[in-house]
Amino acid sequence: MSSSTDSPTLTTETTQLSPQPDTETAKPTKKITLKSSDNQIFEVEESVAMEFATVKSFFEDSPSTDTVPLPNVTAKPLSQVIEFCKEQIKFKANPDEAQKKKYNAEFVTEKSDKDLVDMIPVANYLEIKDLLDVLNQAVADRIENKSVEYVRSFFGIDNDFTAEEEAALRREHAWAYEGVDED
Amino acid sequence: MKKLKKTASMGSKRRRTTKHPGSSSSSSTEQSECLVAQLPQALIIDILSRLPIRCILNCKSVCKTWLHLMSDPLFVGLHMERSPANLLIQKTPFERIASTELLLVEIVEEDFSNREIIRLFPNINFPDTDFRLLNSCNGLLCLYEDSYGKSEITVHVCNPVLGEYIDIPVVNTDKKFEQHFAFGFSSGSNEYKVLQTFFPDKDTTAAPCLAEIYTVGTGEWRSIGKCSFQT
């Protein structure tokens, strides 16, 4: 699906490539080209690209473009996001809530912590509300009932409390620290 | 149990943030795998607001930024929206040997085995006074301190989960009146208010019924004039 090209350096401006209007529309499914910040090219069907609110409004503003630069998005999370949206299109055509729930659950279960967190800003930037909801819930589920230390290492957060401050905070809500899961 | 200043705005449930005002920038970690750095605060708020109360209290000591985030009105609002309904049960002992205890029970329709019960204790979660629970609203409790014979009585507005409360002093100026209190939230102004009504103790013809409103955060009672009182 993705092909590496030796394209010129990415600019945030709209790339004014010469459009080839009639040949594109003649095809049964129109393809849209997305370009990640690391210059990977993704050709996706129009229906998939329209799931990305950001891309959709980009096209509404400049309909003549055929490549959409995504300066904030790297290739890996983008490919996973595209994979998710492709499935969602199928569920739109054939609504099956149970299957959709199952797919969404599997989609996040098989991802590493890093992959999950990496996709969140992408889903946010592309304004894919359903995916953002699924991802945020998945991350919340992964840190639920975990120790403070586990949560810190999950996100790579440094403890910036002094020992006294931390002890005071823990005393304040001592009951909340009982019964957390083993890391 | 922390007593907050009377001017503290419980409307936003803001905590005192004396040590790190505006420490909203993401923590300055230089780790290569610092995943949190790439998440805007609004997204972190969204994720954390999905956690149950116990985990949120736990996460407060992750870092200063998070502690600050969890006092954000946006966070409080989102969390309230997403939290399951809770039932508050008051366990009052027959004699005044043991203290009153409150239980917060999550109402989860499907799964009864896994339901969270939070026990709330006097002095830790709410002030240990000979209180009467007036009512609760959005997770805040309004307690009324029963002090027979004293001219001054106190109403507490308390967040039992955070163990924070404020005092609202009420001066009973006229013994001819009996006071009644109620606590509520005005979604229009985003403020919590206590309503106090006075009605003549015995002779209802002797004086009109009066009402006063206390808006949490303002620190004072304001008369709203006469009120009709029907029994």
TrEMBL record, chain A:
Protein's UniProt keywords contain Ligase: yes
Task: Cite the annotated pathway.
Answer: Protein modification; protein ubiquitination
Q: Where is this region: Disordered?
A: 1-32
Quote the biased-composition stretches of kind Low complexity, using this chain's numbering.
1-21
Instruction: Sum up the protein's function in the record's words.
Output: Involved in ubiquitination and subsequent proteasomal degradation of target proteins. Together with CUL1, RBX1 and a F-box protein, it forms a SCF E3 ubiquitin ligase complex. The functional specificity of this complex depends on the type of F-box protein. In the SCF complex, it serves as an adapter that links the F-box protein to CUL1.
Native source organism of the sequence? Salix koriyanagi
**Residues covered by the SKP1 component dimerisation domain:** 129-176
Q: What does the annotation say about its assembly with partners?
A: Part of a SCF (SKP1-cullin-F-box) protein ligase complex.
Gene3D superfamilies, per this entry?
Potassium Channel Kv1.1, Chain A (3.30.710.10)
Q: Where in the cell is it found?
A: Nucleus
Q: What is this protein called?
A: SKP1-like protein
Which keywords are on file for this protein?
A: Ligase, Nucleus, Ubl conjugation pathway
Q: Indicate the segments forming the SKP1 component POZ domain, all copies.
A: 30-87
Which Pfam family is one of this chain's hits?
Skp1_POZ
The record's GO CC annotations read: nucleus
Which GO MF terms does the UniProt record name? ligase activity
Q: Which GO terms describe its biological process?
A: jasmonic acid mediated signaling pathway; protein ubiquitination; ubiquitin-dependent protein catabolic process
From TrEMBL, chain B:
InterPro entries tied to this protein = F-box-assoc_dom_typ3, F-box-assoc_interact_dom, F-box-like_dom_sf, F-box_dom, SCF_F-box_component
Outline the segment boundaries, as ranges, of region: Disordered.
1-30
Ranges of Basic residues composition bias in the record: 1-19
Please report the stretch or stretches of sequence annotated as the F-box domain. Answer: 33-78
| Pfam families recorded | F-box-like (PF12937), FBA_3 (PF08268)
Q: Which NCBIfam families has this protein been placed in?
A: F_box_assoc_1 (TIGR01640)
Q: What is this protein called?
A: F-box domain-containing protein
Species source reads: Salix udensis
